[in-house]
Design a protein that fits this description.
It contains 17 helices and no strands. With 301 residues, it is mostly helical. It has one domain. The longest helix is centred in the first third of the chain and has 27 residues. The chain is globular, with a radius of gyration of 20 Å. The chain starts with a helix and ends in a 10-residue tail after the last helix.
Length: 301
């Protein structure tokens, strides 16, 4: 994995320039959603699309974000690698790239150096354009040295597209199987590919991106963090807990983003389930006094 020297070697004007290949692929995936006109609709395909959205959103919030970015819980090496592979199925690049940029975001949140703050380059750049630029192709140097010591993660980082492509093939194969053996479901290979893979992925993309853009503009602020993070219940529902973003910026190392009892955090509940099965352990949380309603006086990032 590159340590960021390529990024640092680019001129400032070049860093913000869109990468043609990556932008083309991103646009093509969106255009592929239009194929729904030709493949039609079925309840079976819709349910697969919803299931793959929810499962992969969990992989992003629980694994890429809370584990690889913030080390909010512990796992053995085998589970760690499986979490990394699972996260790759979301099509948001590898866990080290994701974690490096997110750590950079916390280091300089909502300053001009933030990779995706809506306060400086606008909502559209924050939501989508930032990761299509040449400057974001490699991670900020030195941010994930803790993970780079694992050779399997470095290899996966170069092959992050493989689990994503395998998911697409799997959706196609599932549709073909259902068409042959369960014709009453009214689905098929191409329909399952479009709904289960393409549409589900595009919706997943934009739901994830709302935390970079909308969660820094719309919602409430419980804590006076030195950034513009907000808590937004609708985004929390959409992203399995990520919408409690002001809470997260106050306690970034916590595996639990919902501080109060009524702040539903499905990502954390999922992690509790994995912990109960013995697959992960040592989930970090916010101080007990804070969870019960006490307000801390210090300001931290």
């Amino acid at each position: 994995m590159n340590d960021g020297r390529l990024w640092e070697g680019l001129a400032e004007a070049e860093k913000s320039r869109l990468d043609g290949l990556r932008t083309g692929g991103f646009v093509a995936l969106h255009l592929a959603c239009l194929a729904v006109v030709f493949v039609g609709f079925s309840i079976a395909a819709l349910w697969v699309a919803v299931a793959l959205y929810v499962v992969r959103m969990f992989f992003i919030t629980a694994f890429y974000h809370r584990y690889f970015s913030h080390r909010a819980f512990k796992a053995n090496r085998a589970a760690q690698f499986l979490m990394a592979v699972a996260g790759c199925t979301a099509g948001q690049r590898g866990p080290l790239w994701w974690a490096a940029h997110h750590r950079e975001h916390h280091r300089c949140a909502d300053t001009p150096e933030d990779p995706h703050s809506p306060d400086h380059r606008g909502m559209f750049y924050s939501h989508t354009l930032w990761f299509l630029t040449k400057g974001s192709f490699t991670p900020p140097g030195g941010r994930v040295r803790d993970w780079q010591r694992f050779p399997e993660l470095r290899v996966l980082e170069r092959l992050d597209w493989l689990p994503f492509a395998a998911l697409g093939v799997g959706c196609f194969a599932l549709g073909a199987h259902l068409e042959t053996h369960y014709p009453g479901l009214g689905t098929g290979a191409w329909q399952m590919l479009v709904w289960g893979f393409v549409i589900s992925t595009v919706v997943l993309y934009h739901a994830t991106y709302t935390i970079n853009s909308l969660a820094h503009r719309f919602g409430t602020r419980r804590y006076a963090t030195p950034d513009s993070s907000r808590n937004n219940v609708w985004l929390a529902i959409l992203t399995l807990g990520e919408g409690w973003h002001n809470n997260h910026h106050r306690y970034p190392a916590s595996a639990k983003h919902g501080v109060r009892w009524w702040e539903v955090d499905l990502g954390y509940l999922g992690l509790c389930g994995l912990a109960a099965l013995g697959l992960i352990h040592d989930l970090k949380s916010v101080p007990a006094a804070t969870a019960s309603g006490a307000q801390p006086s210090e300001r931290t990032r």
